[in-house]
User: Which sequence fits this backbone?
C-alpha cells in the first residue's frame, strides 16, 4: 500500500523541519510521497526545506496554495496526490518511526473504511505543564489542543464523534474534488480562524453511510506540540467563541446536504453532548459543572445559537 502524506504549513519552518526529519526516518518511507502545501506566498522557507530533504526522500514535493486556510491547503494537497490513501498531518506534530507501517496495517484491518484516525497527545512546547492552571486547562479543554482522549473506545465512530486532521488517513478519489468543506478551516473575521473542518468531514462521511474508525495503536500516536500562549484562559475563551460559530456552521452545512437527518436548529448541539455523555456517564456531571463554573461554555453555546440566523443568510449566497 502506498500513501500520499499531506502537510499544510504556514510560517512554521522549524516545526516543519522536525516533522520532515521524523518522516524520513520512518521505515515505510519508500512507499509514501510527501506533499508540503505552503499556505503563505510570502514564506520562502519551505523551498529551502525541500532542497534539504529531497536528498533524503525522493518523493518529496512542494506546492503553494494562495487561498489562506487549512481546508484550502489540504484540498490542494489531495488534488496533487498520486495515491488514493492520504495521510494528513499538521506541521507541528511529532510522529514515531513505525507510523506509516501502522497506518498500512490499519487499512488492512479496516479495508472498507473511508477514514481512519489515530491518537493525538498534547505537549507544551517548552517543558512540562508546570502550573496547576495549565494542568487544569489541559484536562478540561483537551479538545482545544487536538487531543483525542474524548474518544473512549477504538473502533467504528458514530455521528457526533470525530478524529482529527492532525492525524488522519482518508481514502480519496479525484472525483470527490474538495474533501474538506471550505466554509471551515479558513478566516471568518480578521484575527479569527474557523477550524473543525475535520469534524464536518467525519459527520458528513458517517451520514453518507461510510465508515470512520479510530485506532488506539500506540505506533500511530502523534504528539501535538502546543505553544505556551495557548495554555491561557484568553486563548481558550477565543477558541470557544470560534467553536460556537463552527458548530453552527457544521449544522447549517449538514442540514443542507442531509435534510433527511433532521438535525433541526439545535439538535446537532444536543447530539454532540449526548454522544459523550452516553459513552461516559460521568461526563453528565462534568458538563453541568462546566456550565455552572466556566464562562467559556456559555460563550460557545450563545455563539452557537445566535450566529445561526446570520449563517443561514451567508451560506445561501
Assistant:
Amino acid at each position: 500500500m502506498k500513501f500520499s502524506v499531506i502537510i499544510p504549513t504556514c510560517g512554521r519552518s522549524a516545526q516543519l523541519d522536525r516533522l520532515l526529519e521524523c518522516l524520513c526516518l520512518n521505515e515505510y518511507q519508500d512507499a509514501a510521497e510527501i506533499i508540503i502545501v505552503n499556505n503563505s506566498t510570502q514564506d520562502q522557507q519551505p523551498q529551502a526545506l525541500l532542497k534539504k530533504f529531497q536528498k533524503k526522500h525522493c518523493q518529496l514535493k512542494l506546492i503553494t496554495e494562495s487561498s489562506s486556510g487549512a481546508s484550502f491547503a489540504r484540498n490542494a494537497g489531495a488534488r496533487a496526490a498520486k495515491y488514493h490513501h492520504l495521510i494528513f498531518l499538521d506541521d507541528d506534530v511529532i510522529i514515531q518511526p513505525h507510523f506509516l507501517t501502522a497506518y498500512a496495517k490499519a487499512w488492512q484491518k479496516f479495508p472498507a473504511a473511508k477514514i481512519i484516525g489515530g491518537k493525538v497527545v498534547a505537549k507544551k512546547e517548552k517543558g512540562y505543564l508546570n502550573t496547576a492552571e495549565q494542568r487544569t486547562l489541559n484536562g478540561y479543554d483537551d479538545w482545544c489542543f487536538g487531543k483525542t482522549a474524548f474518544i473512549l473506545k477504538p473502533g467504528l465512530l458514530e455521528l457526533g464523534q470525530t478524529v482529527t486532521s492532525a492525524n488522519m488517513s482518508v481514502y480519496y478519489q479525484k472525483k470527490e474534488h474538495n474533501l474538506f468543506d471550505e466554509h471551515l478551516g479558513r478566516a471568518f473575521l480578521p484575527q479569527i480562524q474557523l477550524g473543525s473542518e475535520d469534524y464536518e468531514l467525519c459527520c458528513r462521511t458517517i451520514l453518507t453511510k461510510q465508515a470512520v474508525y479510530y485506532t488506539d495503536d500506540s505506533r500511530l500516536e502523534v504528539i501535538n506540540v502546543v505553544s505556551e500562549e495557548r495554555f491561557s484562559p484568553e486563548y481558550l475563551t477565543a477558541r470557544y467563541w470560534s467553536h460556537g460559530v463552527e458548530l453552527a456552521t457544521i449544522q447549517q452545512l449538514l442540514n443542507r446536504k442531509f435534510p433527511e437527518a433532521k438535525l433541526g436548529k439545535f439538535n446537532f448541539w444536543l447530539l454532540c453532548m449526548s454522544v459523550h455523555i452516553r459513552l461516559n456517564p460521568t461526563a453528565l456531571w462534568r458538563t453541568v459543572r462546566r456550565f455552572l463554573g466556566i464562562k467559556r461554555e456559555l460563550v460557545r453555546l450563545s455563539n452557537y445559537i445566535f450566529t445561526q440566523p446570520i449563517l443561514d443568510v451567508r451560506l445561501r449566497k
Q: What stands out?
A: Residues 232-317 form one domain. The mean pLDDT is 80.
